Fold this sequence. Notes:
The structure holds 3 protein chains of 3 kinds.
Chain A: H1 2-17, E1 26-31, H2 36-47, E2 56-61, H3 64-72, E3 79-81, H4 85-93, E4 109-119, E5 140-141, H5 149-164, H6 169-183, H7 191-199, E6 205-209, H8 210-218, E7 224-226, E8 230-240, H9 247-257, H10 260-268, E9 272-273, E10 289-291, H11 299-307, H12 313-320
Parallel strand pairs in A: 1-2, 1-3, 5-6, 8-10
Antiparallel strand pairs in A: 3-8, 4-6, 4-7, 4-8, 4-9
Chain B: H1 5-35, H2 39-47, H3 49-82, H4 89-101, H5 104-115, H6 122-127, H7 136-147, H8 149-162, H9 165-172, H10 177-206, H11 209-214, E1 218-219, H12 225-234, H13 238-270
Chain C: H1 2-24, H2 28-36, H3 39-72, H4 78-84, H5 87-90, H6 93-104, H7 118-143, H8 147-154, H9 159-188, H10 191-196, H11 207-216, H12 220-250
Helix pairs in contact in C: 1-12, 2-12, 3-7, 3-9, 3-11, 6-7, 7-9, 8-9, 9-12, 11-12
Amino acid sequence: xxxxxxxxxxxxxxxxxxxxxxxxxxxxLVAYSTPREAYEELIPMFEGTDxxxxxxxxxxYAASGEQRRAIEEGLPADFFHxxxxxxxxxxxxxxxxxxxxxxxxxxxxxxNSVVVFAVRPGNPENIQTxxxxxxxxxxxxxxxxxxxxxxxxxxxxxxxxQLEQGxxxxxxxxxxxxxxxxxxxxxxxxxxxxxxxxAGGKGDIMLAYENEAIFAQQAGEELEYVVPAETILxxxxxxxxxxxxxxxxxxxxxxxxxxxEAQAVxxxxxxxxxxxxxxxxxxxxxxxxxxxxxxxGGWPDVRxxxxxxxxxxxxxxxxxxxxxxx
Amino acid sequence: xxxxxxxxxxxxxxxxxxxxxxxxxxxxxxxxYTFRDGLEPVWEALxxxxxxxxxxxxxxxxxxxxxxxxxxxxxxxxxxxxxxxxHGTWLLNSLIGLPLALSPVVVxxxxxLVYGQDGWLGGWLTDNGIQVIFSKxxxxxxxxxxxxxxxxxxxxxxxxxxxxxxxEAAWMLGASRFQTFxxxxxxxxxxxxxxxxxxxxxxxxxxxxxxxxxxxRIAGKTETLTLHVDEEFLRFNEVAAYTTSLVLALLAVLTLxxxxxxxxxxxxxxxxxxxxxxxxxxLR
Amino acid sequence: xxxxxxxxxxxxxxIPIAAVxxxxxxxxxxxxxxxxxxxxxxxxxxxxxxxxLIVVAVNAVxxxxxxxxxxxxxxxxxxxxxxxxxxxxxxxxxxxxxxxxxxxxxxxxLGVDIAYSRAAxxxxxxxxxxxxxxxxxxxxxxxxxxxxxxxxxxxxxxxxTTFRRIILPNLLxxxxxxxxxxxxxxxxxxxxxxxxxxxxxxxxxxxxxYIFKNIESDEPETAAAVSVVLLVLSFVVLAxxxxxxxxxxxxxx
Lengths: 326, 284, 253
């Protein structure tokens, strides 16, 4: 029975690849939840190039943390575009990504963005600053930090913004606690699902990737976004997974994605390109208080301090949510 | 009991009102949201390769799960009714009923724990190049698991009712076991089987929780129709999500029609052998 | 035949379930206990249990009511109404969730928005468990001998008294049976809840979503532990319902 079922699975592999696969094979592209629309344009573009002719793609999009675990558990992958670096680092530790993956001029980062406030049209609550989020009755949408990379970026943006404003570490953490314990009503699994919740009418403001907010606007959703004076530079890494079937094709694809043409496609979907000289339709300069994850301690420290499941600031917050505050 | 007209209308209004609010209104939303922007987006949604492959995958899962569980169902029913084991009937019955009592998410978890990379069979599967989780076989297995009980449970009461008299008569007249089965037993239980098959199909088409866990959501490869609804909803493709829902709803309606056709005939097969009300097996 | 059936059952059902139980105990009993008494787990289980009980209670009333109207009343379109009772069984749960969100969420045409609340959990569960009590009670009601009711009426009993003392006792076994099935379905329900409830830990996160979250966060032991609790819970309730059903039969009028 199993053999029959497996046979079906194997047989369909050939079907899914479609026409006579060239010598380049099939690239299994695994990414976090938001770059899907960009890849829908980039893949045909790549297939039109010399390096890309004859390459077929399979794609899977879900929360960054989920995808990383899925790859560890056997999800076929040649190419992984994650929301944040630790998801790639974990695969390096598992021996699935080469240790020198980030030894290029972009340090392994493929796309950039920033954390912004997505708000209702006209910004009726006039939300402009981080302190506005703590105003009475304001509901903030942000995903669950234990599954979503986007959520971790949001939290680090909030934390770092406090530091940029001159607050102490303690005050910054107090800000986070107040934010989550009193203003976050829902915790979706991924950034895309959080966007769905916000677009569905829940919440006054959503913490989001700038590119997600732009995507929503392009999809006809009615929202605006505000770039706060202090926010974090989101850097999304990508790497070749060496346990896949087509690592060379994946590497060729990755090289292609750093070309100005490819970065321009990312830019058209709201990302900030990592390559110089590529323009964006939206204002991608600033803000003045832009900082990076290094400025708040770097991912390894941040992950241990804030997001460790065995004991961390956010584990405390999640457990505190259980204390009735009504 | 002739109740007063007032209370009769009152009860009717209450019942129908409840059904409208809970059932009719939500389901009619599917039509509204599907066709709200005209026919063009609907057509686009139906011709989207992702939809087509989701449709094919769902059909594949149904096409394997239904025959497998039908054969199992009839065989197991025959074994349990005609040659019950001395011990362990309780265990067998529990195992059969288990898929009905389990949350679909738990089903998915169970499959990962056995067939996943770190699962009990994981090592052996990887060594032999077989991918179950995050691939089609996983989805098919999940579907088989959750639809396992239906045919068995519909056929058992019928077999009990039918008894073995006719079979024995056939044997005495020289028919082989297989001939007897094909020409005597099977016709006697056919409505039970038919009804069970319909329930199995409905359940297989609608499975979501278990496949959500084992799928890996590889677009065009491991997305079923139900997962496709979810996916399109998340991407703001409202029309696509509702169109897919409409397709599923129409399939559900076909199932309902079949259920309503077969159930009365199945009831007659069973008559009053088992006071268990029909439809009780329609769990999930 | 028995051997093959047993083999099939073992492969498809027994082994995976054994894996869940084994995984839940991987860290030993103390780890198991810790995982199921974690505050978020307890909250999820409590919500699931309470919501399912509420739904069962409501279904006992509405299910009987609907069965009554379908059996004792007659009106145009009754057979159509009768047919759609099974719709929640045939419709995929995710579609159910989607449509409930459309009607009772932020873009509700009725102006009723209960999305992301516990009420949403209850409504979703009411939808998916609709058929059970109805289908359990219907045949019993249909077979009921109306002599006793007519006798009671001729003796001057009011309709509700007749219902309460003559009809209801006969329906109780079927009601318990349907209630048990409702409960079993409700505690495990996932697809219809996941869109409309918001899945907020300690607020609207049900057990199945908690389990799902743990699977996705690479915590299979926790997921397995809570799954085992859910399973035991289902069995206990089914056993209780079975007892209640049998006892109510002894009081057959």
